[in-house]
């Protein structure tokens, strides 16, 4: 099965482990084993790694900006215990870290993880971080607006490719918590 989106050609992610971080491929394959329709619904495409950042990718491959979903890693502390989360928001918005995320993590202050820490702890490349295959311990918070039947584009764990799947399916991915109002602007 091949899908077209923008000027890119997409293939089933379960068939292309060469285009995914090992943890991402394991997460997608495990999910597909439980929910067989996932094998056909989650697709991947190679891209130029220099174009992995959302703005560059959407321009280069004729993709709508609203189709991209950014995954940002956030952390905060409460009583000496760090609480971390991956926040999924449409690229046309940003995560409401100072209000919604802070409340959900029940911390006084929430901040984006520095790039070196985000890549080291996730085991993924910057520009490719995805909610599929994150280490245990991360909450995965998704803005409700990510849902819908249209394909959304997320990271693959590496900069050289992107994953796409229906937004409604992403909201049903294992461990995802759907949050109204996680994104602003």
From TrEMBL:
Residues 49-169 form the YbaK/aminoacyl-tRNA synthetase-associated domain. Signal peptide: none annotated. It holds the Pfam family tRNA_edit. InterPro entries: YbaK/aa-tRNA-synt-asso_dom_sf (IPR036754), YbaK/aa-tRNA-synth-assoc-dom (IPR007214). It comes from the Bacteria. This is Prolyl-tRNA editing enzyme YbaK/EbsC (Cys-tRNA(Pro) deacylase). It comes from Cellulomonas iranensis. The lineage of its organism: Bacteria, Bacillati, Actinomycetota, Actinomycetes, Micrococcales.
